[in-house]
Amino acid sequence: MFDVLLGCLAFGLLYIFDFNKVKKIHSLFTGFFAIGVMLLAWSSYWVYASESYLVFQPTSFSFYLFMTLGIVSAGCMFYALFGALPFTKTYVEGNFNEVIDTGVYALCRHPGVWGFFFTYLFLFLATGKLLVLVACIIWTLMDIVHVWVQDVYFFPKTLKGYDQYKQTTPFLWVNRKSFLRFMQSFGK
Hints:
Blueprint: H1 2-23, H2 32-49, H3 60-83, H4 87-92, H5 104-107, H6 112-127, H7 130-158, H8 162-168, H9 176-185
Helix pairs in contact: 1-2, 1-7, 3-6, 6-7
């Protein structure tokens, strides 16, 4: 359970990173994003590697199927966070201030949440470990709260045109209009 709590601490570092983008306290805090991501990756490994109670015993077929789906989900999450956004300006310099409303960001304002959730859900289905399920639930809830705070407090202050973006693009749930916008912007 300690590793789940370390993952929760990672979200605290992400909040500090976002808060620093608004208040510009010190450039040192731009590194908190990287530290938070590494801490969450470290916690994820140890949750996966734990000798946790098994909710069910997965077959080797289901292990490989769900691990593959988990890797694909992680790839989707990484693309939403690191591929669809300018990496250096967003995470290293911490000064990216434009709305991206094409590609996966036409679907919803926080598409990385879906990849995050499905990564851990499929990891649970691959392993059957209770601790992975606990991490999936707690960390996904923390991720949703984090993006909600970003949506309400941080992004309207740091991203030009974010209030207009909120009027045209759903928070998390994809709808027909956002899906059509995604299809129209596909490949742009």
